TrEMBL record:
This is GRAM domain-containing protein. It comes from the Eukaryota. Pfam families: GRAM. It comes from Polarella glacialis (Dinoflagellate). Residues 133-201 form the GRAM domain.
Length: 286
């Protein structure tokens, strides 16, 4: 039995697919009209998620609709150069001593924040709790419209030393901050400045190593680098980072890699996710 409202949605999605794949689309030359079509497709994805399909024999593919909406949003922001949605340009990365200065909490858009927390499966209590207070204090200054999402305990490697601290995930960037005996070490990367985040194969230990690759070199602890190695301490933190990566980059954190002797990194193990993206349903296949 046809689902009411599905016809108009499918027409819009079909228009988006044909338009984007057309040889005439020349994305760079037609960014405005292409972005408008993508916006329409995203709106239809949202409408479909609200449909009543109780009378239908098939189950509504909610997770696929959400994923499609997120991926379309990434392309749309790339086309329009919307810096308020994805922070652009390099952010300051520094190592400093002394206490962090307090920062005024930026005004957030309630509707946008509510939707982000819902899509990422996070509690909106985080934006008002001690985690948020810590984020506004140690990660200042803040881009306009930034929404704090989650902090994750981890360590970041510099040369042969690991700084223990936290990764702070926001709607615009990823920040790391560590304070060891009064020495503060930090980096901040906009989502737009990250080329990939990948889970690395762990030989031993109970942490989760993740490599952040950047589009341009950044300075971390006195070195110019294009890769940052971090270790996530708990599985729930890894899940939050995975969902955020999917949402803001449209890529899968679980395309795992391993290093074979002195050879470059090569694909190793692919993680298979369930339809519902349930983190506990993840399995590996060799």
């Amino acid at each position: 039995m046809p689902v009411p409202g599905a016809d108009s949605a499918s027409r819009c999605l079909g228009k988006w697919a044909s338009y984007l794949c057309s040889p005439l689309s020349a994305v760079a030359l037609q960014s405005a009209p292409t972005a408008a079509v993508l916006q329409c497709a995203r709106a239809k994805c949202q409408e479909l998620q609200k449909l009543d399909v109780s009378s239908s024999k098939t189950q509504l593919p909610v997770e696929h609709l959400r994923a499609a909406e997120q991926h379309l949003a990434v392309v749309e922001r790339w086309l329009t150069g919307d810096e308020s949605a994805l922070a652009g340009g390099a952010l300051t990365v520094s190592t400093r001593s002394g206490q962090s200065s307090s920062a005024k909490v930026p005004t957030q858009v309630p509707e946008q924040a509510e939707r982000l927390f819902r899509d990422l499966g996070l509690s909106d209590d985080l934006e008002r709790g001690p985690e948020a207070d810590e984020f506004w204090r140690v990660c200042a200054p803040h881009p306009p419209g930034e929404i704090f999402l989650k902090s994750i305990s981890c360590s970041a490697k510099s040369r042969n030393f690991r700084y223990v601290g936290k990764i702070y995930i926001s709607s615009l960037r990823i920040c790391f901050h560590s304070n060891l005996v009064g020495v503060e070490t930090e980096f901040a990367l906009s989502w737009n400045d990250i080329s990939s985040l990948r889970l690395m194969q762990e030989v031993q230990g109970n942490t989760f190593p993740v490599r952040i690759s950047t589009k341009t070199e950044i300075n971390f602890d006195g070195d110019d680098v294009k890769e940052l190695d971090i270790r996530i301490f708990d599985f729930s933190g890894l899940g939050a980072l995975h969902k955020s990566t999917m949402y803001f980059l449209g890529t899968d954190l679980f395309g795992m890699w391993q290093k074979v002797q002195d050879e470059p990194l090569v694909p190793a193990v692919r993680v298979v996710r369930s339809k519902s993206c349930d983190m506990q349903a993840i399995t590996t296949e060799m």
